[in-house]
Design goal:
single chain; 348 residues; alpha+beta; T-fold
């Protein structure tokens, strides 16, 4: 779903909390890098954390991953016991009262749908299943199927009542899919835990999707992140230094299928009801991981011209790098992107 993000740090990132002991005890208050990985939300979350005490690092890491597990239980569309599944099952028959956190998630989703004119839309659950992406099967639905799916797709069909904390659907069969924003929401929640624990330098990566850079490694201005060029290239597209901000990237390399020699991407255009064509990858920097995650999908669906207009109007504090075309003939569009771009991949 998202491109690979490699964190390059000065200390040994192979050190895990389980191997906290070092041959020589560090000086008092010296910051040591601890790394832990935890499976959640269909990927592996990795936390790089600097601390002067292994117990502090272990406690913070455990709390972070407990929080991510809690958010997964809230948002999972694979678990019948999740709050999102409860809403999917009942909101078409009556308003469903939900908790403030879930309501905030749905309001954030509604916001990005509204400002993008539906380029971002979490009601694509049935659409994703029809194209075979829910269970990684891969199929091309008929025109009749797609026509029928229009009745159960569309963010305007979800009604939120903040006063009563309810959500309802205006049509039966609607299914919410958190895939384009859920990991960012989880990262933001986990970063709040890190701040509450007074952790001043950490990098949390939600697989190959979204990361947040908290503070900076010792004696550094920020976390150095390499954004690779479009696959199959192994070259760097751009390198950024991040501090107290997030980065999300979208492409089709992680989830796709090929039929008849044609590659179908899992990122849907809700207007056409078909996978996006002509976009290679998108990277977005924004102070909010929820926003960068959603925006990476918005920008992937919109044309570069539409994307730049959306960013200027609704996310002026963001930075974006958009790669379009084909691997053999790619073009780049940038919005406030401050780092050099490898011209071997595309021309700005």
């Amino acid at each position: 779903m998202k491109i690979l993000l490699r964190a390059l740090v000065t200390a040994s990132i192979g050190l895990t909390l389980a191997r906290a002991a070092t041959p020589h005890a560090p000086a008092p208050h010296a910051q040591t890098l601890y790394t832990t990985t935890h499976p959640a939300m269909g990927t592996d979350f990795t936390l790089y954390l600097y601390a002067s005490d292994p117990t502090v690092a272990a406690t913070a890491s455990e709390e972070v991953f407990d929080e991510i597990d809690r958010i997964e239980q809230l948002l999972s569309n694979y678990r019948d016991s999740s709050e999102l599944s409860r809403i999917n099952q009942n909101a078409a028959t009556k308003p469903v009262t939900t908790d403030p956190e879930m309501l905030a998630f749905l309001q954030a989703s509604e916001h990005w749908s509204r400002i993008s004119d539906g380029a971002f839309d979490i009601t694509v659950g049935r659409l994703m299943k029809s194209w075979g992406f829910f269970r990684h099967e891969g199929r091309i639905p008929t025109d009749a199927e797609l026509s029928a799916l229009r009745a159960v797709t569309g963010w305007q069909k979800v009604t939120l009542d903040p006063t009563n904390r309810t959500v309802s659907f205006t049509a039966p069969g609607i299914e919410l899919d958190p895939g384009g924003i859920g990991k960012g929401f989880a990262v933001d929640a986990a970063v709040r835990i890190l701040r509450a624990d007074h952790i001043t330098a950490a990098l949390l990566s939600a697989g190959t999707s979204t990361l947040y850079a908290l503070g900076a490694p010792p004696h550094k201005s920020g976390w150095r992140i390499v954004i690779p060029g479009p696959l199959p290239s192994k070259e760097t597209l751009s390198t950024v230094i991040l501090r107290d901000t997030s980065l999300s990237s979208a492409d089709c390399s992680q989830k796709n299928f090929t039929l008849g020699g044609h590659l179908y991407c899992h990122i849907m255009d809700p207007q056409t009801m078909k996978p996006v064509e002509g976009r290679i990858q998108v990277s977005i920097i924004n102070p909010s991981a929820t926003a960068s995650d959603a925006l990476s999908n918005v920008i992937f669906v919109q044309s570069p011209e539409q994307s730049l207009a959306t960013l200027r109007a609704s996310a002026p504090g963001s930075h974006a790098l958009i790669v379009s075309g084909t691997a053999d003939h790619a073009t780049c569009a940038a919005f406030q992107w401050q780092s050099p771009v490898n011209s071997a991949h595309c021309k700005l």
